[in-house]
Amino acid sequence: MKKASITDVARRAKLSISTVSRVINNLSTVSPENRAKVEEAVAHLKFKPNVSAQRLARGVNNSIGFVIPGYPGIFYSFYAIELIRGVGHACESLNLDLVFHITNGFNPINFNTVGGIVFADIIENRRQVEAAVATGTPCFVINNKVDDLDVGYIAVNNHLGGKIAADYLLSLGHKKIATVTGNLTTQSGAQRYEGFKEMLEKKKVTLPKEYVHQGDYSRQSARYAAERFLDLKNPPTAIFAASDEMALEIISMIHEKGMKVPDDISVIGYDDNPACLYGAVAVTTIKQPLFQMAEKAVRCLNSIVSGKKTKNEKIYLDPELVVRDSCASPKRG
Amino acid sequence: MKKASITDVARRAKLSISTVSRVINNLSTVSPENRAKVEEAVAHLKFKPNVSAQRLARGVNNSIGFVIPGYPGIFYSFYAIELIRGVGHACESLNLDLVFHITNGFNPINFNTVGGIVFADIIENRRQVEAAVATGTPCFVINNKVDDLDVGYIAVNNHLGGKIAADYLLSLGHKKIATVTGNLTTQSGAQRYEGFKEMLEKKKVTLPKEYVHQGDYSRQSARYAAERFLDLKNPPTAIFAASDEMALEIISMIHEKGMKVPDDISVIGYDDNPACLYGAVAVTTIKQPLFQMAEKAVRCLNSIVSGKKTKNEKIYLDPELVVRDSCASPKRG
DNA sequence: CTGAAAGCGCTAACAA
DNA sequence: TTGTTAGCGCTTTCAG
Q: Nearest Cβ partner of B89 from A99, A102, A137?
């Protein structure tokens, strides 16, 4: 037995397919009796409308794609999860299908199945974005300020975030400040580091290169870096980690070495990951509204896919300092 | 200017739509000259085939749904990420659209858009599975042995996993063994605990209730539990955590308290999360092939959606002990 | 190797 | 309130 179609339902209900269509779509212009008949038939035949046919007839594709660029580990980050949740939430409330693209960042992806695409960042996959734009697929990028492509974006000023972190540590009296960067091939990683460095320079505080460790947002890279910092003959009194997860791992490391945060060393993170609140010490951090950014991205994209708007929105937000317990003034200058 | 359709392409190429269709679908029966003409037109018009029309004409829906039941925090787990990756990978290689359903576990979800659904577990959302089955949508469940519903599944014997963990600790000579369970409303959480408890009973080792802490797979719950255990006048010499992330957090806590793993306390986890390798001590754990399970789920589901098979597969695997450095014999009985 | 034509299942005027 | 009908864009026989 094949799948029931609208015709089968109509036949069983002894009504026209239009009427069936009306009740499927909840149009009010159907008499209660007929509605009941249709509903009986639908239930009996286990009828499910064919979405492809609906979309074809309606002329719209009710789905958007979501691509997470594939650098190893990005999935395991708070960042990715928040975006997934945000995008998912928006799609659910807008009744959009969320089509996930897991990709290594290079494989071509099939844009045809979706009305638009949101990119969870651009890392090494700028090509994919360009390809999508070239085919005329509306695109929206999260966490990258990209002004040279016809795409919308929502990003936060990572440069400013780095400055804020540095400034705060400086204001506490720290002079020996180290940093574990994020992945520097990401705009966020590079800019946080730049902002951080710039502020230090501005305040005439030197940043020796043994105080800089290139991480990649992973706990593992943070652990490695922290170990190096702590083994220095002249260790830093404060550390700026480009993500909270890294900050958390650094704090663990410090404790393992028998020292205390913030008494012996201050640590500041980035993201405002709730995990900041539940560790050994509440982590001071730079907040960025990932979930909301993802939601907003979907809404913006949808309004252009559905033709309600025509101009790509370019949104650029400021991050915000959240003071908690992981930073204090250094014991001695 | 509207989107170009196959007719537009045919017109520009001065050929029939059949020929255009053949080129699009890479059928070899097209002369090189005509193929070139079509390709020129396609490029010129930025033609993208309408997937809905293709699916309608072909009579198949090339996409599968993926639902992650929504209990808070599940997203932030290694478990969820591995499944997402595995499902994503399989879909990419099978050329399937992966439609993500983020749901609180109660909202009805629209199954019509997909050919089949894989559930990343069943927690409180059994209803959704039943609803899907009722509409005739092929379903496949990961990590739940469900024999009373017409669905396929791939699960691992969590009961056995719990036993293996207990048995290993026992074999090392531990008598005072505590556990932080997973979410007990999940089959995995409940069964790991049951298996663990059973093995202890079998070996006549008592499990006082202050040695049992109901966690929920979160780091936070593990930290809380560990703190309680360590504060006991008679603390355990070993702890079984129902996930590696919890084990990792417990290890951190132990270190914060100035003790060592495994010298003072042994800890065994569950999952075989790579993070086990990069912390202060390599974590001994119970391995379960999440990524592969997810992949397999998609393949099984697809073969029934596409009609290649008709019987739902029911797969039940055994977990495996992975010995690393976080467990040792207790210092004294 | 190519084209004509019959649908795929549904929506949305339009008439009744 | 209901039914008729013309597509939506594409695939796929079937002739040629």
A: A102
Domains contained in chain A, number: 3
* Confidence label for A186 from pLDDT (cuts 50, 70 and 90): very high
Of A63, A223, A256, the CB nearest to B255: A256
B268 and B191 assigned to the same domain = yes
Q: Which chain A residue shows the shortest CA-CA distance from B48?
A: A112
Q: At what angle do helices A6-13 and A17-24 cross, to 10 degrees?
A: 110
Same domain, A185 and A145: no
Domain check: are A149 and A205 in the same one?
A: no
Q: What is the pLDDT of residue B332?
A: 61
The answer, as to whether pTM is greater than 0.90, is yes
Count of A–B CB contacts within 8 Å? 135
Give distance CA B57 / C1' D13 (Å).
13
Same domain, B162 and B283: yes
Which among A138, A123, A150 has a CA at the least distance from the CA of A69? A123
Rounded CA gap, B248 and A220, in Å? 13
Q: How confident is the model at residue B333 (pLDDT cuts 50, 70, 90)?
A: very low
Q: Are residues A13 and A105 in the same domain?
A: no
Complete DSSP assignment for B28-49: S-S-HHHHHHHHHHHHHHT---
Contacts of A48 in chain B (CB under 8 A): 111-112, 135-137
Q: Is residue A333 in some structural domain?
A: no
Instruction: Give CA–CA dist B152/B310, Å, rounded.
Output: 11
**A29 CB neighbours strand D below 7 A:** yes
Q: What range defines the domain where residue A67 resides?
A: 63-156+290-319
Q: How far is CA B63 from the centre of its chain?
A: 19
pLDDT in tens, B69-124: 877 778 889 999 999 999 999 998 898 999 998 877 777 788 888 989 999 999 88
B165 and B89 co-located in one domain: no
